[in-house]
Design goal:
alpha+beta; 2 helices
Length: 169
């Protein structure tokens, strides 16, 4: 019985350690701190530039920004990276409506991160394109919960099984 309990505790410890280690890289990725215009902002006039600020330094290679609006793709120009910021010039011809900006940035440690923000100029509309944000953190969280539930079920099953056996000499 003692060996089963020790084995169960060891299994739980190793599983917990692996769960923490698997989640650590996801927490290390750069994150969007701020955007100008802000996510969900309603503007009376179009911005001249877009600026997305991140927690870590970015590298230009592999970083990009794409815009979509009521009539489809919006041709942003001068997309560039400076320190922690991804910037782009907004075209004066973009018009009004709701715009979705998707980005892909690469932090100085080489990890790519994707996401999206939206803002409205004038009145709201349906953006021309469907763009997705990164869901990598959700996958890691769901995996951690599944592993934790499996460990609890295994420990309860082992305990119940040992409790139903008569003591052996």
């Amino acid at each position: 019985m003692r060996a089963t309990v020790v084995g169960g505790v060891a299994l739980a410890g190793v599983t917990g350690l692996l769960t923490v280690l698997a989640a650590a890289p996801a927490a290390a990725h750069t994150q969007l701190l701020d955007s100008r215009p802000g996510d969900g902002a309603v503007l009376a006039t179009a911005p001249e530039t877009l600026t997305l600020s991140f927690t870590d330094r970015l590298i230009a290679e592999g970083s990009s920004l794409v815009a979509a609006g009521p009539t489809g793709a919006v041709p942003v120009t001068a997309v560039g990276v400076t320190d922690h910021d991804l910037t782009a010039q907004w075209p004066a011809t973009a018009g009004t409506g709701t715009f979705q900006i998707t980005y892909r940035v690469v932090s100085a440690d080489g990890h790519p991160v994707t996401g999206a923000i939206s803002f409205t100029v004038g009145g709201p509309s349906d953006p021309g394109g469907t763009l997705r944000a990164d869901t990598g953190g959700v996958v890691v969280t769901v995996a951690a919960v599944v592993v934790a539930v499996a460990v609890v079920v295994a420990l309860l099953w082992t305990r119940r099984r040992t409790a139903s056996r008569p003591d052996r000499p």
